[in-house]
């Protein structure tokens, strides 16, 4: 830092590496509210969004960059910036990601504006992808999502949606929440160790993080890989915070609740996927099936019933 | 693109490289105005800011990333986004920089918000720096700004400030301006080829780009290198657009006008610096002198007179 650019030295002695880069806005009024989220939660969530993108590809974080614009109302209160940086740097410290640079400005409006940039590394041609395809790298010809592959997710689903609903009902109740693993919305946990293990151990054919919710992110995976999916509703791991919801809201949270930042991945049926990876539970929640014309891209199985699962919705199949 | 991160392969066969990373906000109301700047100018300026940071370090651009949030008022008019991308991609094409990814969002306010991220490469330990110091790389022990080094700048100064003043006086006059090299404010020219030549030919001991104006950026260089500077006012290259200003405004534009994005660099007196590099004129504008207590960090020489030059100001020395 201190020059026009930050200088990064890529790790050596690990064979050819490629760079993974992701940028994510965290904008007040879109991604957080100052009256709902503590400054520490905003800092944590800002970095977690970027780290989760690296986790989805099995990458190791190399450095983070932050562009941050504060409006007069936030700049006047140094505690906000301190709290934000505390939250961001605590998470960065746990994953040993240096905050290597960025930009600061005064916001042109009354909203806080953050943009987080993460740079990571992965062995060349081996980064986990939504399609399973290796981007034409000859050393990885066999990896491809196939019908018959099994569908897995990490952790539990619906927790972030349930906590967000609780936050909406009582915004002040959560002001003192801490990143202790029990706040899936306020302090989500990027699954970096799981993603890295999936890559290192060659377990997954494709992977994505669930930032938008199962239905939306599974659709991305199906579209990228050209394969359809069936999901077993009774196999979906419900987060304890979502257990208090009524049944319809539970299903809504499981299928469409965003920001859980769990990983969704596929594995060949010949692969033995452990029940827990890097200390995180792993659940088999469905299977990949051939994509067929006039058949849904995603099917939800509930006992004998079949529903067409759509991003953010579902409907009973004839 | 299309995965959670973009995958970059770093150039091989060029020896050990390091990565240079820079992020720059381009926010409506701070960095541009929709009623003054065409969409193409905003796109060009957004990318030029990042490219100029790479130029200052002698780096080659590897990829650009863009986070862009449009308010409803701009999203409603697809011509704005088209014009913005046309401007950005025309400049990217000229320098062969792929736009490799980024993020989009709806702006939480009525302002357009852009954050540009540039990643470049330079031979390990050889990137040009403000301090001249090589960051502890043993292969480059001799490079350090020294008293006696000469001070140079590229191109001409004050053009961007003069064009901005003209824009303020008649905002609609410039709606059809094109990136033809004659619009230093609307379509600034990042000096990538010059920076790369300075690095490759070992000409410079330190370098910075003039985004904030000569007085501010020279202060950064002096502070980073621990050396003071003397600037000869009559050697400063005045941009033709600034020639129409009155004498006081001319001096103001030369010394403090920002956003010219010319390079400011130092070279040892034993080095023969060409009068033009990569087709861009190079001017010797002063010299580095020992930093002394109670003596100005920057001195402006006008004939027999000496002034203390301060960031954004100057005053007569006793």
Brief summary of the model shown:
The structure is a homodimer of 318-residue chains. With 318 residues, chain A is an alpha+beta fold.
Structure report:
In chain A, 25% of the residues lie in helices and 28% in strands. With 318 residues, the first copy, chain A, is of the alpha+beta class. Chain A folds into two domains: 15-124, 2-Layer Sandwich (60s Ribosomal Protein L30, Chain: A), CATH 3.30.1330.10; 128-318, Alpha-Beta Complex (Phosphoribosyl-aminoimidazole Synthetase, Chain A, domain 2), CATH 3.90.650. In chain A, strands 6, 7, 8, 9, 10, 11, 12, 13 and 14 form a nine-stranded mixed β-sheet that branches. The first copy, chain A, has a four-stranded mixed β-sheet with strand order 2-5-3-4. Chain A is globular, with a radius of gyration of 20 Å. The relative contact order of chain A is 0.16. The model of chain A is unreliable at 135-141 (pLDDT under 50). Chains A and B meet through β1, β2, α1, β3 and β4 of A and β1, β2, α1, β3 and β4 of B.
Largest interface: A-B, 61 and 61 residues
CATH architecture identity of the largest domain in chain A = Alpha-Beta Complex
Instruction: Give the CATH topology of the largest domain in chain A.
Output: Phosphoribosyl-aminoimidazole Synthetase, Chain A, domain 2
First and last CA, distance of chain A: 61 Å
So what's the CATH class of the largest domain in chain A? Answer: Alpha Beta
Average pLDDT over all residues of chain A: 92
Oligomer description: homodimer
């Amino acid at each position: 830092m201190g020059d026009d650019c930050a200088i990064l030295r890529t790790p050596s002695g690990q064979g050819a590496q490629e760079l993974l880069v992701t940028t994510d806005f965290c904008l007040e009024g879109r991604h957080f509210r100052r009256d709902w989220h503590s400054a520490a939660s905003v800092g944590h969530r800002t970095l977690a969004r970027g780290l989760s993108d690296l986790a989805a590809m099995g990458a190791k974080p190399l450095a983070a960059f932050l562009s941050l614009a504060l409006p007069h109302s936030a700049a006047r209160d140094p505690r906000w910036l301190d709290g934000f940086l505390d939250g961001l740097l605590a998470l960065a410290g746990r994953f040993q990601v240096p905050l290597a640079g960025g930009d600061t400005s005064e916001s042109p409006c009354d909203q806080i504006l953050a943009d987080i940039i993460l740079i990571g590394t992965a062995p060349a041609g081996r980064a986990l992808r939504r399609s399973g395809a290796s981007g034409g790298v000859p050393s990885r010809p066999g990896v491809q999502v196939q019908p018959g592959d099994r569908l897995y997710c990490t952790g539990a689903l619906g927790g972030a949606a349930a906590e967000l609903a609780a936050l909406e009902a009582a915004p002040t109740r959560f002001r003192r929440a801490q990143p202790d693993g029990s706040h899936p919305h306020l302090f989500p946990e990027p699954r970096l160790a799981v993603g890295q293990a999936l890559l290192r151990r060659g377990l997954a054919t494709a992977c994505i993080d669930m930032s938008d919710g199962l239905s939306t992110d599974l659709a991305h995976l199906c579209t990228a890989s050209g394969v359809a999916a069936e999901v077993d509703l009774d196999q979906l791991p419900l987060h304890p915070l979502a257990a208090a919801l009524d049944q319809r809201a539970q299903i809504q949270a499981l299928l469409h609740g965003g920001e859980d930042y769990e990983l969704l991945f596929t594995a060949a049926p010949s692969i033995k996927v452990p029940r827990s990876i890097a200390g995180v539970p792993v659940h088999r929640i469905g299977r990949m099936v051939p994509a067929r014309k006039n058949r849904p891209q995603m099917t939800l199985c509930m006992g004998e019933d079949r529903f067409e699962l759509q991003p953010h919705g579902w409907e009973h199949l004839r």
